[in-house]
Amino acid sequence: MKIIQITLTVLLLSAVLIQAAGDGRFQLGKANGRDCLIAPDGKPFLTLGVNHIQNVFQGEGAVVGDRQQACEEILEQLTSWGYNTGGYGTPEPLCRMLPSFAPMYLTQNANYMSDAQFEYCDVFDPIVQQKMREVIQYEIGRQADNPNLIGYYWTDTPQWDLQRARKKRGTDWVSMIRELPAGAPGKQRYEQFLADGGQSDEAFLRLIARELYKVIGEETRRLAPDALIFGERYLAHDHPDAVIEEALPYIDVLSIQPGGVRFDADYFDSMYERFNKPILICDHQNSFPTPQYPRTMWQQLESEEAVGLAYDQYLKDAFEKPYILGYQRCQYIDRYAKGAGMLKQGVVREDGTAYKILTQAVRQANLEALERFRQHCEN
């Protein structure tokens, strides 16, 4: 058993401590028929990561002082639990120590936003388009020299589905464009759509997606031609086919945020069959109540032990699929979301102490997943 543990630790550390080689970029590839990331050293790489680590330095109980030291301690924790990646929201300087994803927030239509924060923009407006390009330029400029960059995300959980948006917001992207004042770029494009014989809101939604992805896709490719693009982080079932079809020319990977306890094989199989892109589970977790916080985000299970078991089974089921590139867990540290009135639960408590039962289960599941991946790649 001790020899096995040493082998797994070496395997994990070799995945984390990457020495840039070749063009110094993560790429997509195949390993014995499996879609996978290829690290800069040329080796297949299964990404297991944690999102929103930056919350350590934000909100009530935020860590103050030496960020470098804090990030070194977080790195030691993550690797001890079998994680080899920082998800979106990985702070500096941790993203220089650990392979990570870089986000770009290009629109304000995230599903989780309050009505006061949420808005659909006029994607046909040159001024709006230029603002998006400036965000892309800034974010790529920040990461251009980072050999640990895995790739770029765009907007988080964008609310695309017309029916779901109308139910939740009382409006949707097409309705917003239709109601713009005369002379607005979007209004003019909608009037042209009608003049050309367009009729359905779904057909115009495709044109909105086409315009958005053309602008942000071309700019991202122009500035980072060799970087992987993981696209928008779609909420499962909130992404009409037409929207993803318009994104396909510009993205390398489909990034999906699923809910639930069990891996939904039918859903993911259908996504892969329809769009023929490898898939990253970019944000997911289950939670459990605590004495202080009986209400928690994500699907709540009865106990810490139950969440650990569910996590293990989810990884096993997900990585049976040869098109799944990796798994990113939502949230590193507990933070109470006042607006939602519940805890956004991490793997460590607000005071920084780890959930012992959970992290033991996570470590075992992660190391076993990495070992299965290694054996598959070598056989």
Summarize the entry for a quick read.
By secondary structure, this protein is α/β, with parallel strands linked by helices. It has eleven helices and 15 strands.
Classification by helices and strands: alpha/beta
Strand order of the largest sheet: 5-4-13-10-9-8-7-6
Give the rounded overall mean pLDDT.
93
Cα shape: globular
Q: Tell me the number of strands.
A: 15
What share of the residues does DSSP label as strand, in percent?
15-25%
Number of helices: 11
Description:
With 379 residues, the protein is an alpha/beta fold. It has two domains: 47-98 and 256-379, no CATH class; 111-252, no CATH class. It is built from eleven helices and 15 strands. The strands form four sheets. Strands 5-4-13-10-9-8-7-6 form an eight-stranded parallel beta sheet, with helices on one face. A hairpin with a 5-residue loop joins strand 2 (34-38) and strand 3 (44-45). Helix 10 (304-318) packs parallel to helix 11 (356-378). It starts with a helix and ends with a helix.
